[in-house]
From TrEMBL:
Keywords: Membrane, Transmembrane, Transmembrane helix. The keyword Membrane applies. This is Fatty acid hydroxylase domain-containing protein. It is found in: Membrane. Residues 222-349 form the Fatty acid hydroxylase domain.
């Protein structure tokens, strides 16, 4: 009896052979659609907590140092483009304009903001919020329309839980709660992006890959990814302790058959602590801009995919299929990980078909189901 191989069958990672069959009949159309929705989802995810804006600001500010693929000495033309962009940026930029404004008004508040590298914060926070709301509603709305409205009468073709849809009340709830979280997280991201743009010294993000060398870049990216996965697992597991579950995390678990919107519909306290945890390493460990942005995009993308309710396997051998997190919403206290099965395997919290689960069965391992419940 091998429980782990049983669970591997339950949540196979990476593309399985059967997965290719759907590509054959209409390869181009389906791949195009997949690419299109992937870009939309990545945009929606990265804007949901305002990080899209944060990384745009990082890139914009450090354009001159951003020679990841083209070292400066080997590519003069690109360097010139970078320099001209930089000088253009210096001649007309928001920072300069607001500096003049702050000199004129010369008030106490602006001085305090400058002391904390937060000048322009009143421009950047609304910008971050605007980007978040716009992408979230336009992209999220499109995805809802494509699956949940257009294909609503054929759920067995695409849905993890074909018999189950969110009630109208819960659909509204996830939009409202998601909008509140966008406000909280977008504000946090807006403040952080202002800090980074103004050269805040606490951030350890670097932009020139040669600064620490290529091997460091690769190793630090992998370590950061695993660190994010560990933080997500343990934080999520803690949220399933009875006190935290009842007071915070239950807000997210009212969506028994989640949609992409559910991904950001969390208790605002839970949401902002999560965002803070994921960003924490950038203040302690030197991480390349691409590593940070890459891991975040990956995390957001699969965060949305995993909540989409659409039955899909991932292409990566380490990334569990959508069913894995969908089952977390269906069975409550199991499958706590997000981007690997490592920690669930290690702690024995993968869902098992011979155990019984429910909202009142805490601990992550279910309870003995007895003979009849074996096929749960
Ligand atoms: Zn949960
Ligand atoms: Zn969830």
């Amino acid at each position: 009896m091998n429980k782990s191989s049983k669970n591997e069958e339950l949540y196979p990672c990476g593309l399985q052979d059967k997965q290719w069959s759907w590509l054959k009949p209409d390869f181009s159309g389906k791949v195009l659609f997949l690419v299109f929705t992937s870009i939309l989802l990545a945009l929606m995810g990265s804007s949901a907590r305002g990080e899209l804006f944060l990384f745009a600001v990082m890139l914009w500010k450090n354009w001159d140092d951003f020679y990841f693929f083209y070292p400066r000495e080997n590519n003069d033309s690109l360097a010139k483009v970078g320099d001209s962009f930089q000088s253009e940026k210096n001649s007309v930029n928001v920072s300069e304009a607001s500096k003049i404004l702050s000199q004129n008004s010369n008030n106490f508040l602006n001085k305090v903001l400058e002391d904390y590298c937060l000048q322009d914060v009143y421009i950047q926070v609304p910008m971050a919020l605007l980007t978040s709301y716009l992408v979230f509603f336009v992209v999220g709305g499109y995805l809802q329309w494509y699956y949940y409205i257009k294909k609503r009468d054929k759920p067995e073709e695409w849905k993890c839980q074909p018999q189950r849809f969110l009630t109208r009340e819960n659909e509204r709830h996830e939009i409202y709660l998601g909008a509140v979280c966008l406000l909280v997280n977008g504000t946090f991201s807006g403040i952080l992006s202002t800090y980074v743009k103004n050269g805040g010294t606490w951030s350890k993000v670097y932009f020139d890959v040669n600064k620490y060398g290529f091997p460091y870049f690769i190793v630090s990216t992998i370590v950061y990814f695993l660190l994010q996965d560990a933080a997500s697992y343990y934080y999520h597991r803690m949220l399933h302790w009875p006190f935290f579950y009842r007071n915070f995390h239950k807000w997210h678990h009212r969506y028994h058959s989640p949609t992409a919107f559910s991904a950001v519909a969390l208790h605002p306290v839970e949401s902002v602590v999560f965002q803070f945890l994921l960003l924490l390493p950038i203040f302690f460990v030197p991480l390349h801009f691409v590593s940070v942005a890459g891991c975040f995009y990956y995390l957001y993308y699969y965060g949305l995919i995993d909540h989409s309710g659409i039955d899909m396997d991932s292409i990566w051998p380490w990334q569990p299929p959508v069913r894995f997190h969908d089952d977390h919403h269906k069975y409550f206290h199991c499958n706590f990980g997000f981007n690997t099965l490592l920690f669930d395997r290690f702690h024995g919290t993968l869902r098992r078909t011979d155990r019984k689960y429910g909202e009142g069965i805490f601990g992550g391992k279910g309870s003995p189901a007895g003979k009849k419940a074996k096929k749960a």
